[in-house]
Design brief:
2 copies of one chain form a homodimer. Chain A has 6 helices and 9 strands; from the N terminus they run βαβββββαβααββαα. By secondary structure, chain A is of the alpha/beta class. Chain A has a single domain, classed as Class I glutamine amidotransferase (GATase) domain (Rossmann fold). At the A-B interface, α1, β2 and β4 of A face α1, β2, β4 and α6 of B.
């Protein structure tokens, strides 16, 4: 099985990566989702779930297939900046990175968006809060953007984010993807 | 703080209660979400998150405000039928119950839907698999139904499920609810 790592923090947004992890982890895919965090201490989600991380920064497994960064309430805390090195490793090794909501802002602050098309509704914050941010010209007003191994999305775009991740990892063909998306976007009854 | 309990099982569907737990747990509500399970062993979600339950069937806190039952892959396993007693307690004490996807089927199998309007896309299974199921006349072809302290939903209706729970617990007024729903249904950019 190919591993996909989900980075969990205290206050991570439950819904943002919820569709994509469940879909990737289904028995017919080549992927297995596991969690990684700054350390092995339990992390409590925004919705109150206490999650035990599978890995910490000290024992990240080799050869994983994607790093997923959900948003949340603690992306601006000092300790969570430690994930920067893991993200750098991914970019260097051409491992895809998928970030949603505040995790996209995190990428912008650290310069990871400077050379990639991206979205994320934090552009004003980035322009004011990150003096070195040079990704403005690459900003695209879409719910989710996929560009050269980088996927970004707004916090209200969990489904569009998932569709781009499934596309990147070639889990479904385009027709299956559209059916999957329509089912969850419009509902099974009135689609 | 008033407690809302989320029942977690192995294979629980990450997305189905993800919006509602995060919204209920926000600092400005009167509610706190905690997890309950058959026992205190960690439960692994469909998407691969290892969750440590706050409570087991042996130490369910008194006086909680709602029981939320997300769907998942193990609702038909024998051990998970143990939650039936907790559900009975809720119905007897008029504590609202909110069930989505396979958890709705669970309620039907055990007769909890017989006297409530409900939805859930498992009607064929219920008719075949549950000889005592008498809720057919109450079935409504909607993404989510709220009726007299019981909320049900299809697995593709996490947002509609959330809206009904927030309505039941009077977290937002109707105008705020519609804004919340539009934001997440249509997205922040193109709404």
């Amino acid at each position: 099985m190919k591993k996909v790592l989900l980075f969990v923090t205290d206050g991570f947004a439950d819904w943002e990566a919820s569709y994509v992890t469940a879909e990737l982890n289904k028995s017919w895919t080549d992927y297995q989702v596991q969690t990684v965090a700054i350390d092995k201490d339990p992390k409590v989600s925004m919705g109150g779930l206490t999650v035990l991380p599978d890995y910490s920064m000290d024992d990240v497994p080799q050869g994983f297939s994607m790093l997923i960064l959900p948003g949340g309430t603690t992306w601006r805390e000092e300790k969570n900046q430690q994930v920067k090195k893991l993200v750098e490793d991914c970019f260097r090794k051409n491992i895809p990175v998928a970030a949603i909501c505040d995790a996209t802002t995190f990428l912008g602050i650290h310069g990871f968006l400077d050379h990639h098309k991206h979205t994320g509704n934090s552009l004003p914050y980035l322009k004011e809060g990150a003096p070195h941010y040079r990704g403005e010209d690459h900003y695209i007003d879409e719910q989710s953007v996929r560009d050269n191994g980088l996927i970004t999305a707004n916090g209200t775009a969990a489904l569009e984010f998932t569709r781009n991740v499934l596309r990147e990892l070639q889990v479904y063909d385009e027709k299956e993807l559209q059916e999957w998306y329509a089912l969850f976007k419009k509902g099974s009854v009135h689609s």
